[in-house]
Design a protein that fits this description.
- By secondary structure, the chain is mostly helical.
- It contains 11 helices and no strands.
- It has helices at 4-18, 22-25, 31-46, 65-77, 85-89, 94-105, 117-129, 140-143, 161-172, 182-187, 192-204.
- The two termini are 19 Å apart.
Length: 206
């Protein structure tokens, strides 16, 4: 649920980058406007409840509002490259970006059982402990033991394995450079098995 305290925190996190005025004039995200945008176009890929229509698209339910707003800003500016998302974000205002983030953050993520439990078991080890032999840091060290992330770092829990796999590959190839450089270093050390295993485990987290 949205509240004043949370709004102030988001305003501080986003600051002038998104021009959030909530901290100054007590303006709350316009969730009605967000719903209009979602029902008009976002739902085609991400669903009305943030459950994506394809495993290639990210689940947005429960994702941090501040993180989502930043990604939309990066799509708009071209800092994060996407032929699909750039035109979708092009006409969004800063207020609409934050409102969309708040809208999807309020949605309850749905749990998904792993398709391959043994593979997910390997992923659990990498996620929680990393790989000391190759210098891979534990995912949990940044994203938390349950994959909930922070307003600055994405919630991973329950994300589509196919989407996670694609993002790790983009980090490895330096095709995604708008986020923490740490991810580029980590992704470059992951084997294909580790990528698939971590993605499978992440998708099973509630």
């Amino acid at each position: 649920m949205w509240n004043k305290k949370r709004g102030l925190a988001l305003a501080v996190l986003l600051g002038s980058n998104l021009g959030v005025a909530y901290g100054a004039d007590q303006k709350k995200p316009d969730l009605q406007r967000a719903e209009e945008i979602v029902s008009g176009r976002c739902f085609l890929c991400h669903g009305l409840e943030g459950e994506s229509s394809s495993p290639l698209f990210p689940r947005l339910a429960g994702q941090h509002a501040a993180y989502m707003a930043k990604q939309l800003e990066d799509f708009k500016s071209g800092k994060r490259r996407s032929d699909t998302m750039k035109p979708q974000a092009a006409e969004l205002s800063s207020d609409e970006m934050l409102a969309l983030g708040a809208f999807f953050e309020a949605k309850k993520p749905q749990p998904h059982a792993p398709a391959d439990r043994e593979l997910a078991g390997v992923g659990r080890y990498i996620f929680q402990k990393g790989n000391a032999f190759t210098g891979v840091a534990a995912c949990a060290s940044c994203h938390g033991p349950k994959g909930y992330g922070t307003p600055q770092l994405p919630r991973l829990a329950g994300q589509n394995p196919e989407y996670i796999t694609a993002q790790l590959q983009q980090f490895n190839k330096r095709e995604r450079t708008n986020d923490n450089a740490v991810m580029h270093a980590i992704a470059s050390k992951l084997t294909e098995l580790e990528v698939k295993a971590v993605a499978e485990y992440i998708g099973s987290l509630e």
